[in-house]
Amino acid sequence: MSMNFKELVKDFTNGLWAENPIIRLVIGMCPTLAVTNTASNGLAMGLATSFVLIMSEIVISIIKKLIPANVRIPSYILIIATFVTFTDYFLKAFFPGIAASLSIFIPLIVVNCLILGRQEAFASKNPTHRAIADGLGMGIGFTWVLTLLGIIREVFGMGSIFGFQVLGEWYRPMVIMVLPAGAFITLGILVGIMNQISREGK
Amino acid sequence: MEEFTQILLLFISTVLINNFVLIRFLGICPFLGVSKQVETAFSMGLATTFVMTLTAAATWMINTFILEAFNLPFLQYVSFIIVIASLVQFVEMFIKKTSPVLYKALGIFLPLITTNCAIMGLALLIPLNGYSFIASVVFGFGAGVGFTLAIVLMAGLREKLEFGDVPGVLKGVPVTLIIAGIMAMAFMGFSGLISM
Fold first, then answer.
1. Where are the transmembrane segments (chain B) (predicted)?
2. Which tens digits make up the pLDDT trace of A121-150?
3. Which domain holds residue B142?
4. Residue of A111, A176, A198 best to disrupt the B interface, most CBs of B under 10 A
5. Which residues contact B192 (CB under 8 A, 6 or more apart)?
């Protein structure tokens, strides 16, 4: 029992740092760059992606034996697309503001390599409880990097965090940080810093 | 004549002003993954352009004649991804038959075009912008040309970078992202080119 529990904890923490989808594996880049112009957009995108990831990992780990090997990828994509449609309609109905600011990047969760990658690498080979742990870990790993990126860009670009003004009148916002160029440069430097941290840890 | 001008402007704005990779953030994965050599980057760009043009035509027809006609918008994502996956499969078979060398060079990246968000993004942007059939095809082709331009430029820079003295922690992905940021700044210069 304790062995099982240890395994679950390991599956969960894997996605947070050691195999973090953005920092370590560099996948799922499009939403990472596109919708992190504010902290709340980053957080919302992270949560929406995590939901789709966890739900499809659960379904696929349950029905994995029923899917023939040579049509598995199309089947995974269909399952993912169903949850994405659900998420999109849910956000449009209850959080129209968020849905509008994330625009086409909600439907684009369908083609996020992170989600398909986890189905292929994990959910299709492991029991459901481990798939849930993996989905939670990867989801939180994805979300925290997106939120951090959003916070950095919002502070420098608008002087606020989650819409609250934190820097005073004296601060002149660097508009470049909320523009596309700022996204690339911020993420580049962030990945560099993370590389340095993990190198020192060794 | 008026219409022709409109189409031409749409093409230019898709390639330069609203570049899919550098301004809209679509197709970042292959942009970072397949941009080590100019030659491979160019083939990848060609294959993507081909798939994009076909996707634009196919998804426009499906959206107009099936999804809108029968009021089935909730099937949009599911049907688009199926169309894209089958088109990519078709292109893969075609290249394998006509040019085995190119097929080998593209390798794993060819099937991965399916999960290239630039293609799905294109399919989603067309109904959102309400383009006509011809405008959609031009939009798809322009998006492909813009993608090819960005990825080839990036590959050229990275080939030179091989000889540069990059700090250890920034090697690989970080420095590529920073260069992409500088390229995005340069592309922002096009934004005043046309007022649509």
1. 6-29, 41-62, 74-95, 107-127, 133-157, 169-194
2. 899 999 999 999 999 999 999 999 999 999
3. 24-162
4. A111
5. none
